[in-house]
Hints:
Chain A is of the alpha/beta class.
Amino acid sequence: MIIVMRHGAGKEALAEVKNRIREYGYKPHVIHGETRNVIGAIGDERGKSVLQALESLPGVESVVPILKPYKLASKEVKLQRTSVEIAPGVVVGGDQLIVMAGPCSVESQEQIIETAHAVKAAGATVLRGGAFKPRSSPYSFQGMEEEGLKLLALAREETGLPIVTEVVNPRDVDLVAKYADVMQVGARNVQNFALLKMLGKIDKPVLLKRGMATTIQEFLMSAEYILSEGNQRVMLCERGIRTFETATRNTLDISAIPVLREQTHLPIIIDPSHATGHASLVPSMCYASVAAGCDGLIVEVHPHPEVAASDGPQSLRPEVFTEMMAKLAEFAAVVGKTL
Amino acid sequence: MIIVMRHGAGKEALAEVKNRIREYGYKPHVIHGETRNVIGAIGDERGKSVLQALESLPGVESVVPILKPYKLASKEVKLQRTSVEIAPGVVVGGDQLIVMAGPCSVESQEQIIETAHAVKAAGATVLRGGAFKPRSSPYSFQGMEEEGLKLLALAREETGLPIVTEVVNPRDVDLVAKYADVMQVGARNVQNFALLKMLGKIDKPVLLKRGMATTIQEFLMSAEYILSEGNQRVMLCERGIRTFETATRNTLDISAIPVLREQTHLPIIIDPSHATGHASLVPSMCYASVAAGCDGLIVEVHPHPEVAASDGPQSLRPEVFTEMMAKLAEFAAVVGKTL
Amino acid sequence: MIIVMRHGAGKEALAEVKNRIREYGYKPHVIHGETRNVIGAIGDERGKSVLQALESLPGVESVVPILKPYKLASKEVKLQRTSVEIAPGVVVGGDQLIVMAGPCSVESQEQIIETAHAVKAAGATVLRGGAFKPRSSPYSFQGMEEEGLKLLALAREETGLPIVTEVVNPRDVDLVAKYADVMQVGARNVQNFALLKMLGKIDKPVLLKRGMATTIQEFLMSAEYILSEGNQRVMLCERGIRTFETATRNTLDISAIPVLREQTHLPIIIDPSHATGHASLVPSMCYASVAAGCDGLIVEVHPHPEVAASDGPQSLRPEVFTEMMAKLAEFAAVVGKTL
Amino acid sequence: MIIVMRHGAGKEALAEVKNRIREYGYKPHVIHGETRNVIGAIGDERGKSVLQALESLPGVESVVPILKPYKLASKEVKLQRTSVEIAPGVVVGGDQLIVMAGPCSVESQEQIIETAHAVKAAGATVLRGGAFKPRSSPYSFQGMEEEGLKLLALAREETGLPIVTEVVNPRDVDLVAKYADVMQVGARNVQNFALLKMLGKIDKPVLLKRGMATTIQEFLMSAEYILSEGNQRVMLCERGIRTFETATRNTLDISAIPVLREQTHLPIIIDPSHATGHASLVPSMCYASVAAGCDGLIVEVHPHPEVAASDGPQSLRPEVFTEMMAKLAEFAAVVGKTL
């Protein structure tokens, strides 16, 4: 932490800040500047947020954090990139480019089985599908719940594809874990800390989606909640942030890929479907994400988007998905990955 | 819903869209334009979101919703403004300007009792204080939990002030309801639908905070989740939205007050503390909010902000709060409210 | 500037940074931390932006500016608040609350004269009206240009109201200055530095609007362009920033008022018309702005908004404006200002 | 345009709106809905913005534009993609991937000549360099002006590379056009309509940068200003939009590439340097942009970023640029382009 003193703050003000810094267990170090003084607080970074309260002292202009607040998610603590095995032979964070595909919601046995076969045939290695749906309207379809989980399990049995599905209530963690290979935390729950803590205590990989207004630093702090409870198998998923632009549902922050690669060892998945909101924009965003260095993609595919219970406009038809996968393999080859 | 056809879309495309509209139970009405056709789908608005999926059809350019998706929160359904009684004689949404004040977190018996007396003396009518704290870092203080709730209840006993406190986990709704007069939903949980549904089933007023990236329409949809489960005592709280500006913690959207007054009958509370993040900015934002027509304020007050466990920089000292309340009474008088 | 070294950066890297700091004329001061070192660069703040380039050195993690980059706009250089006399007896920045009102565009002699009389009768002290219109579409009405300026001058002659009007091209500065009492710089030109420099050389007050995505710090740097050329009569105008919210045209950042009052001595004007985009939201935002401590308002008024050539939806009818002014006087009284 | 009437608006209100629509030269078409009526205004789309003023009528709830406001920039008017020849054999918008590279600012003859040779050797086909610099601070380096233009011309003579450079003042259009092969409009001037109109009248290609808070629709309207004056050689450049995220200088909106390809025939250039603000993030964003389908890149390269007069942190060293170009060729091959 750097504590910037006000222009004209006197010796007493400086002394008080130094005392407070010592009280909190840090060592103060003053730099006397031309127009104002600046104090560094030296010490271990965790818990330093209490120093922020020094901003309330009369002589203090601002308190500037210097270090990143996360630890276990950081490359300083763990240099080697993490790879997460989600099923035998399906490893996220290595040389494989993992593609998770399937409908937004599980709607029926026919729909999920048909889609599972189609995405598998096109080369997807994980099946996605929502059974608990967080919808902004209480009047929209809320998901098939446990019935949907059972249908996903059935699709896995039929195709061999591991399944990723969302959990929205801490209460349902055990139920979802009974069926799922990967537990998904949706964008709206990225700071549902009760849920994150519970996911930190189970032995299942977690796909953590970034929220619509979550900074990359906050995103890594949310991952830290899971990691610090013991579960190290966390995958980060960028799915678009909310901006002023309305041509797309959200703005896909592809630059988050190299930023995250610099700051964390955790694998990075991109969701171009929720980011763009329009099926026609999805393939080029998949290509771009792979070129930028992501470890995997999660893509919405529906056999009949025009009657989908949710997210129809952003779902690819199976034939478009198949075509896209062929092109994707070429981009994957350039970055040294196999599809 | 208005379905805009693509330039050059032919008769078959038009016929297919009309058929789909009828299948969903709406009546299609075509307007033949100069460069493209437009189809209105006539019918009851609830559930119309399924029509959005028509965007997947080849001849469709876009699907434009015309009606607001909420119903119970709307002034079309209930013209008279809602007033919420949170304790005998403490009514939000009428001629009283309600001020809720207290520390961010309950830290100790001494702290909460001292603050409660101070804010009561200054004219506050509700005591705020957090026992379950959603913190972005797992290493930050997470709140005193039930012990904190007990201290709040003790402060109520000593001062007579009703208490508002946050609930973050659906599991804790009954526990928190045992102590609290008002259940607060924090910004990070505005779309924690599992929590909202549970709060819709209890008999306690709810203070629902807008999320950092929640549109006003989504905010009202979140209120709709509570209302549609049966609980009509919902208060909306604007607490700043996330923008590019960093001089303030968030940007307080004061124009949300008149927008909400046009669209909903629910009372409106403003939280200038989390919005601005700096104590020195809080009083003028309180004055502005009252002038703009809010029904109440929720303000962080701490006897010693420089040692606060959380949110020190944005907490008012009791003497500043007292001074502000005197000025606030003058503004309240202009809008015909009493403090 | 604080230069944060990378974790593990060695002595040579540190030495190189120290040398570069000295080369740029600053004095390096190292703080040896537990996990990384931090170097303060001590010296006069102007021009320090060159230090930012040190981020390119291999051992450097980031370069953190500590001081504000503006000088003449700052309260550190000039403690006393600036007041700007725009006509005899019309002073912005003192005890008067200045209300500038009139149509978005000058459309005809009848329209501008009728409006000028109406706003004067209601208590406005300055007439606004656009002759050069920066419109996002080349097919929209672009203003009456010099003919419009002449009509504004005529309206001034008839009513005695000084006039504020926009200049969009550096070439037109002299032409507009021939007619206008206050030169307005629109939001789209807030970083049109060629225009700002020219306005810094003339002897007319300038009303500088904040851009849609301009931080408060950048806004003050734009003011600095005018001030540093010699013109000290600068008024700052907040007119809404662009956010994700679409219920309003922009989001009025009322908290900019207290932030600016802490950072600068320049007077502050609020434009609620462009900020909200809807006439029904304007009065409450005027009340809020006055309560928050602004020095003046600029409000769009049109005798027949439904046929206005531009900005009809956000223009007040004269009778609504008159009613609002009466209420505004009550709020002004609370803050010790007269209308 | 769709005019949505208020719930409960009567026959007179409807009749008035219909009359106004006819007065403006459009044909009204009413759809009688269950809860409210909706009126389509049928007619040519240009100039329809006047209909927006109908929102001021008492019975009107909102006015919803259906059509895009631009015409010449649209694929409806010109289906075939535009290709812009900026020098013999250097064509943007075809099978060539055009890479423009060079320093942010021209600083000296040695610097620009050295850089020109380096970027040419690496495969760049256009040299970039700023002579007129729009800087947020009046105290920062403002560019070498005409002297800089002469040095750019000298570099062109030595290397054969055509040059792109920025013009910031309408007054300087002829001067810059005397030297430049491509006229660049910076992000801050995207709505400097006086400048755009002048550039519409000259016979030089224009590289138009998107502003920090410019929607794609507004961006195309700015292009329309140039096109409608007669100059058809316009290239669009995405360079990052301003969001809440601070890990990058701006957020590169790569999804703008497919959106623009759907809406316009104009070529698309990406500037990853200003978008990210950090050299280490530039290569992956170049790869992603090419994969997403852009026509070219504009990249900052400086032989000694640590002493650059501007934008040092985001400038690539020549050896990094060279390495990147080799990889870029592989991605270009996948999309069928040559470097």
